[in-house]
Prior knowledge:
By secondary structure, the chain is mostly helical. The chain is 74% helix and 3% strand.
Amino acid sequence: MESQEKRGGNVAAIATMFALxxxxxxxxxxxxxxxxxxxxxxKASNALSQLGNFANFFAxxxxxxxxxxxxxxxxxxxxxxxxxxxxFTGVGVQLLSGYIGSFAVYVAGAFIAGFSMCMxxxxxxxxxxxxxxxxxxxxxxVQFGCSLxxxxxxxxxIVLGILIGEITEKTAFANAAPALMIAMGxxxxxFVVVALSNIPEPHMETAEEKAARLSGGTSVMKDxxxxxxxxxxTLGAVAIFFYIVVEVGIPAMAxxxxxxxxxxxxxxxxxxxxxxxxxxxxxxxxxxxxxxxxLGRLAGGAVGAKISSRKMITFCSVVGIALMLATMFTPVxxxxxxxxxxxxxxxxxxACGLCTSVMWGGIFNMAAEGLGKYVPMGSGIxxxxxxxxxxxxxxxxxxxxxxxxxxxxxxxxxxxxxxxYALIGxxxxxxxx
Length: 433
């Protein structure tokens, strides 16, 4: 009977973590589509249009380690509830920005939402990995959770793309208000669900650990230093720093390419770029990228118990580099799929979603291997490194200088490092049971 109750509790906890995975992507992916609005309403450059992404991921730098401490001292449930409340506030501020027409307020809201996304990631990834028993089984469960993450990522640009529609001088943040209201509703429901859920606390500090901390026997910096002694973890944290730019930067640049317009000195649109298809179609195409990520994660989850993370990421890194090259060098030509016309190069961009799909879960799985009691601090450091998303405006700057599609050279360089990590850097340097 006790075993059955434990299994039932695990199932409920897994279902709750899956729901939180959905929320993370649905809210995070607002930034790319909002960047399109920023270009229209505020005449922003490609680089400045990505400040929402910058703010969202910059928050991870500040919340990663503190979030890990909250997780260790207060547990998964408290951390999740706090994250949901903060997320509701962040999206609310973004909603307010639409009514007052302030880009600065929107960026502030994205920054607040970033705190929430960081804390939610801290909860979902290590708990799913632990509930799966670590190793290949843990990776399998994380991949299934990431599949739900991809559902949210798929719906977000499609919903916002439909709301944005044709790009004109009148396109404004207020267009996105219905989607933001939906997100706030999801946060409100999630708060109730998490509050009523029985979530296990496998990594909360013990009475002995608390006593040692209060007596000065342990410190945050000591735990950070001890965690970073795991070489495979440290290199994995760098891999996550780069991976975030790859995952989000690919569709973000594609969205800019498909909504690119040439403007005169007054900011009026005088012509459209070679890949222009409008906000609605661009949203669907970018949504297809995230849909491919969902399919890839489902496949990764199905085979995750048999194929190692190292093999998965090695294969996907190589294919991802090839697809990026195809995206950049395919001649400008329009194709029609399901009645939607869009650039042929975007077919290869969409296919990249299959490659990026398993990278997050796979890198986390390899980096967390053998960390033992340092899993919460390792998760905190990992989440801090997600601030790599601040490099997306750097790719936007490259797009301003050398062209939107040519900025994918940046993506290729980062994929090359991920390939190195899979082949060499992920080998466990030491293990703590």
